[in-house]
Amino acid sequence: MFEVWPENFRTYLIFRRFESQWNWVSGLGGAARVGLNMSALPVFINRMQLTDDEYEQLLDDLLMMEVEAIRAMNEKV
Q1: In angstroms, rounded to a whole number, what is the distance separating the alpha carbons of residues 28 and 11?
Q2: pLDDT 10s digits, 37-66
Q3: Strand, helix or coil at 4?
Q4: Coil, strand, or helix at residue 51?
Q5: Are 33 and 23 contacting, i.e. CB atoms less than 8 angstroms apart?
């Protein structure tokens, strides 16, 4: 369980909706997620009526979450 701060809740919801949008690569060591399919972003946010600044902030936040998620998924246990 974890807490999501109110100012991050919208980004968290979009990130969760993106669960099926991971790009994968495979190689000798198996398969790995390498990033989100950002071309799907408009589909997920088209009804949010964001200003340009809000859109840019949301994109920056999503990219940060993507990088951290990839880092966490690729950690060796």
Answers
A1: 34
A2: 889 888 878 888 889 999 999 999 999 999
A3: coil
A4: coil
A5: yes
